[in-house]
Design a protein that fits this description.
CATH topology of the largest domain: Rossmann fold
Shape: elongated
GO biological process, one term: DNA replication, Okazaki fragment processing
GO molecular function: 5'-3' exonuclease activity; 5'-flap endonuclease activity; DNA binding
Mean pLDDT: 95
Oligomer: single chain
Order of helices and strands: EHHEHEEHHEHEEEHHHHHHHH
Pfam family, one: 5_3_exonuc_N
Largest sheet: 6 strands, mixed
Keywords: DNA-binding, Exonuclease, Hydrolase, Nuclease
Protein name: 5'-3' exonuclease
Strand content: 5-15%
């Protein structure tokens, strides 16, 4: 079997690193926190050692709350807005992200977002457009929809950290949620997701959503079946779904990851050595990153 492309949800990992490592445990000599940077680099090193990719790409949120998704569902991520359309991000993390991106550039790991799209959409486009196998790395449940055994796409779900990855194929998604991976977006639209400001269908939880999908198919098939008096819906469920027709029509495209994003040119091949060793050395010395940077570079050769 050929070696995989690791398609990494960078915001998912650096937020996890920031919250998982105390700031006082990872600082410069001047007391500047670098916990998110060190944690992220160490996560990448562990992923490279354990998954043995030959390609690696980091996806970014060029637009964390795209206008087209907000137009469809105005509550989408609204609770996470700090001001205007700016995401609420801890100040000490916000300062670390540009340094992390400089470090990745010096090493030779492509990291990019695309205007008007979230990192999820970049990952979705990589998953369907790059040669298989592709392993998507994220703590975002929405990306279970990308799992495709026939194509060789897996989700390395790090909801409990990179050390406790769930290596998700179609069987795992079905066992975990009771729905096939291809219906995960439909399942999420009905169930809702408070972390993304998606209300779901009132009174329809995970089990009911899974049963509906098992019987009828996705949201479009379920809504179509509402017009059939012999479709077999329980009266209460039919009423709830009927009242949510407009919401479901809007929520489904919000929940679906885009797979046709216009990506920039990039070289995903894992570097055998840092692309700009002088820049990497300067960054490592300035930001006290030598240990993490060395472990990542060593992982390339391992």
């Amino acid at each position: 079997m050929s070696r995989p492309l690791l398609a990494v949800d960078a915001p998912s990992l650096y937020f996890r690193a920031f919250h998982g490592i105390p700031e006082k445990a990872a600082q410069t000599g001047a007391g500047e926190p670098v916990n998110a940077i060190r944690g992220f680099l160490d996560m990448l090193a562990q992923l490279i050692r354990t998954r043995r990719p030959d390609r690696l790409v980091c996806a970014l949120d060029a637009d964390w709350r795209p206008a087209w998704r907000v137009e469809l569902v105005p509550s989408y991520k609204k609770h996470r807005v700090a001001h205007g359309e700016v995401e609420e991000v801890p100040a000490s993390l916000e300062k670390q992200v540009p340094i992390l991106l400089e470090t990745l550039a010096a090493i030779g790991i492509p990291a990019f977002g695309v205007k008007g799209y979230e990192a999820d959409d970049v990952l979705g486009t990589l998953a369907v457009g790059q040669p298989a196998p592709v392993e998507v790395v994220s703590g975002d449940r929405d990306l279970f929809q990308l799992v495709d055994d026939a194509r060789g796409t897996r989700l390395l779900y790090c909801g409990r950290g990179v050390a406790k990855l769930e290596d998700a194929d179609e069987a795992l998604v079905l066992a975990k949620y009771g729905v096939a991976a291809r219906w995960y977006a439909d399942f999420a639209a009905m169930r809702g997701d408070p972390s993304d400001g998606l209300p779901g269908v009132a009174g329809v939880g995970e089990k009911t959503a899974a049963r509906l999908i098992e019987r009828y198919g996705g949201v479009e098939q379920i809504v179509a079946a509402l017009d059939d008096p012999d479709a077999g819906f329980a009266p209460g469920v039919r009423t709830k779904l009927d009242a949510s027709r407009d919401y479901l029509a809007r929520a489904l495209p919000v929940c679906k990851v885009a797979t046709d994003v216009p990506l920039p040119d990039f070289d995903p091949v894992l570097p055998s050595a840092p692309r700009d060793p002088d820049a990497l050395l300067a960054l490592a010395e300035r930001w006290n990153l030598a240990g993490s940077a060395r472990r990542l570079v060593d992982a390339f050769a391992g």
